[in-house]
Model the fold of this input.
Amino acid sequence: MGKLKILIVEDDPVTRSLLEKKLKKAAYEVATAKNGEEAVGLVSGSFFDVVLTDLMMPGDVDGVGVLEHVKERNVKTEVILITAYASIENAVEAMKKGASDYLTKPINFDELMLRLDRINTMKSLAKESLDLREAMDVTEKNAGQTIQDLEMVIHRLQHGLSDIKRVLNEGSIETHERIERALGILDRLII
Done:
């Protein structure tokens, strides 16, 4: 799997710019939103692997609102909440609503990169698992068809062998004629 497509939702322009530069430098595909309303619009029109959102933002849509909207659009999108106001209650609420992680400001970029790497690894494993499941389904379907075909061949061969046995045991027909008829049945079975 390639690098993640990440949406940064941050009302502070300095933090937003710093996050954008760091993530682009790490070769991630990055988009930004300056508030929750803008983020909702972007998420409605595009898929993001990860949404990195500030928890406390001015306006009608805060970080939890962004989280809720993202999860309504696509449950596979991971959401990491960032806040300067770390509290257990906010973290628990966010995790219950589907946040995959929670970071505090100032952001430790090594920690953020490790979490993004973990998300990328998990998405890659999920994709590989899905690919394997699909391959197994195809293999199972093909195996089922092969078994059905073999059962039909076996059935045909069993009938042919029964016919050969019946012809060879027919006492009222000359031996030479019985062998000729048996060979004729055998020729039809081979074709």
Summary: Strands lie at 5-9, 29-33, 50-54, 78-83, 101-104. The mean pLDDT is 88. The longest helix spans residues 109-169. The chain is about 65% helix and 15% strand.
